Amino acid sequence: MDCKLEESAWRAESLVLQGQEGFPEDGGEDGLSEILQLLQVDVEYEHQEEEACPANSATWGSKNVQRKQRHWERIVSSKKSKRKQEKERRKAKHAEHPGTCPQHSKRFLKALTKEKLLEAKHSGPRLCVDLSMTHHMSKKELSRLAGQIRRMYGSNKKASRPFWICLTGFSTDSPLYEECLRMNDGFSAYLLDVTEEDCFSLFPLETLVYLTPDSEQALEDIDQNTVYIIGGLVDESIQKKVTFQKAREYSVKTARLPIQEYMVRRQNEKNYHSKILAINQVFDILSTYFETHNWPEALKKGVSPGKGYILRNSME
User: Fold this and answer.
1) What are phi and psi of 311, to 5 degrees?
2) What is the 3-state secondary structure (H, E, C) of 262-289?
3) Where does this protein have compositionally biased stretches of type Basic residues (predicted)?
4) In DSSP terms, which residues pair with 310 in a beta bridge?
5) What are the pLDDT digits (tens) for 226-257?
């Protein structure tokens, strides 16, 4: 406070000296009155600050802290005012157009997504990603698999009828887990099950269907009492029938996506055609079919043009 008073006195003295050195004056007593008023305002302002912030308070012991606190309070007050104005604006807009759907806040949408996912845990279909085959995968393959898990979870969050996802055979001290933490923000808070148990010991074998492109049986429908398994395998060397042989080892039913029933090969320069899909692509097909019960629409969603297949009715 003493420093402020000295500064105000210096400003007042400076103005007086300026008037004596020939600078334009505002006029005698009026100029002096203005200087005294300026000094009085500074004194009163500092006195108010001193009353609001006792000198003995540890929090307000520094004038720099006081300045930052006042700045922060102005920011908070401004944000509250803006939120209030935005809320009133939305109310007015909704009153003008009562038929339109209200825009929900991010917090509300996040809570709604969480509620849907937790509801799927009790009543939705289950999808297991078998991650017990990752120990032979390279660092590059593990990174690709971690990215596929992220995209699969993102699609499930957006679905109106989500699955409950289980990552089985998944150890928290594995290289894949470390890669998921590195690549996927908030991975440890994902609303899904993570377990070291194998999917074959976690569920009754008669409830399992292993989805593999090598199966002879095409998937016809999605049953909510069935647990569907996707092999969590990114194999750049393309070892055939790995997931199919694993399912046969445990005498578990298998099924393939009905690609050949609804799609045909499309001629391309490389003559490349593949039915091997990433786990997020398989999930997009299952999720879309579960919502629409339309296989062509679901396959169009998950089978990218690069796989060399198109829907039958898309041929010219």
Assistant:
1) -65, 145
2) HEEECCCCCCCCCCCCCHHHHHHHHHHH
3) 65-94
4) 264
5) 999 999 988 655 567 889 999 999 999 999 99
